[in-house]
Amino acid sequence: MGTVSILRLGRIRAAALVAAAALITASNVTAVASAGVIAADGGTSSHSVLHGRLLEPVPTSDGDWKATAQALGRSGKLSADHTVYRVGFPRSDLKVTSKGVAIKAGFALGSYAAFTRYEDGKAMMMGDLVVTEDELGKVTDALQAAGISQTALHKHLLAHEPPVWWTHIHAMGDPVRIARGIRAALDQTATPPASPPSSPPAIELNTAAIDAALGTKGTNDGGIYKFTFARREHVSSGNRITPAGMGVSTGLNFQPAGGGKAAINGDFVMTAPEVQNVIRALRRGGVDIVELHNHTLNDQPRMFYMHFWAVGDAVKLARTLHEGVATSNLKPAH
Fold first, then answer.
1. Dihedral sign computed on CA atoms, order 57, 62, 64, 70
2. Residue 122 pairs with which residues in a beta bridge?
3. CA–CA separation, 263 vs 103, rounded Å?
4. H or E element: which one contains 114?
5. Cα–Cα distance list, 54 to 135, 202, 241, 249 (Å)
6. Pairwise CA distance, residues 144 & 157, whole Å
7. Which of 3-17, 76-90, 241-255 has the lowest mean pLDDT?
8. What is the tens place of the pLDDT at every residue in 93-120?
9. What is the enclosing helix (H) or strand (E) of 125?
10. pTM of the full predicted structure?
11. What is the DSSP letter of 118?
């Protein structure tokens, strides 16, 4: 056999190996997808892209999520643009203290799961579960058994008692099956059942001055004054655009502490070039940095999340937080 023939045979064999590998990969993806749940950042194949573009979330109604809510055992709330259905699981059972401050559930102890549906009919879930150290192992096992990925595990507070952890979760597929998996994980915790809706208590802070400092109006969420800022650019995960309501946002929370003071906690979402600028802005105002990390595995552009903490004059702290917002590519999420 001549040299040219040998080379041609080698190319044919190589092409056959590539084709076989592609078939095996496709079979594996099909097998996982048939289970109804694709774990962290699934759907990264070409099937996740329509006509060479990222898939966008589509508007939905409360009725579209009725079965999901039933599987979770509680209802959620649609975002203003109807693309995100978010369900909260506040850990009102926990009595956590940090730096002498009793932490309210809506301030820093709020588990949640957020769902969005895409034009190919698949749903993405992203969330964050608040768990004690005793609960963590059992929650991890329940999530893994359900095919729900954990994409981060960390703290949102400085020294606190009892020890609490925050674990971020992600899945793609049938939202009802995903919801059942989340419910199984929550059943490993002492998370209380949903409480009936009630009017929030008045915010004992100068909210008008805080609004002015941050350049937008906050919301009273159960007695906690909150602000949300979204990224101006699109952020994607697994070839799908991820709405801000899924958790890709900067959240600033004020818990009244009396005398015009507040404890502040939350996190900034940043690109790598923004991180040091935000750190410097917060430290100039005396705000402590708690954690710096990622929440997901393959977002684009890569996003970093930085949690913070301070107690002091609420308006002054709002001005400091505004300096951090101003150094980032953010806009009010309203």
1. positive
2. none
3. 9
4. strand 110-117
5. 37, 43, 6, 20
6. 26
7. 3-17
8. 999 999 999 999 999 999 999 999 999 9
9. strand 123-132
10. 0.85
11. B
